[in-house]
Amino acid sequence: MPDLQREAGVALGDEWPPLVRGGIACHREADAVFHDLDVFRTQSARLTRALLDAGLPRGAARAIGHAGWELLFDGALLDDASLVDAYLAAMRVPVDDVEWSAALARRVERGAPTFYAEPAHVTELLWRVLSRRRLLAFDRAHCDVVTACLRDAQPSIAASVDDVFAALA
After folding, report:
1. Do residues 24 and 12 make contact, with C-beta atoms less than 8 angstroms apart?
2. Rounded distance between C-alpha atoms, residue 4 and residue 93, angstroms
3. Which residue among 38, 66, 68, 77 is least enclosed by CB atoms within 10 Å?
4. Beta-carbon count within 10 A of 146 CB
5. What are phi and psi of 32, to 5 degrees?
């Protein structure tokens, strides 16, 4: 839910049942552990450095180094049918809130985000999202080098999946 709230257009609020609030707290705790993992910090920094060396502005390079790494990591999980099934099942959980229900229905309708496994598609998503943020935006002319940097980082990101899951467990 924390990752979907922007899409839903609603705040998380405190009115959720205890089980949901517990899930939100668990998500935030897992995120904190994840962002402190050596493999994430090292590979994200390496990707950021490659983007800076390719001429991207600092804010864009840092944003892509972080969010691009996470999106490609999620893309590496798409080969695991049980994880994809669990993701789609979670999106189908009925909720009473109309905005949340609509956002989840849109997610189910789109299916698993298979484009996260494609560096060019991740670049396009990041270009669209970051273009709204002046300090994080990058020029359309940089898309090819961003894609190349993401493609170069992808094998090591995919190879980190088991280590990340082991650390989070």
Report:
1. yes
2. 14
3. 38
4. 25
5. -65, -45
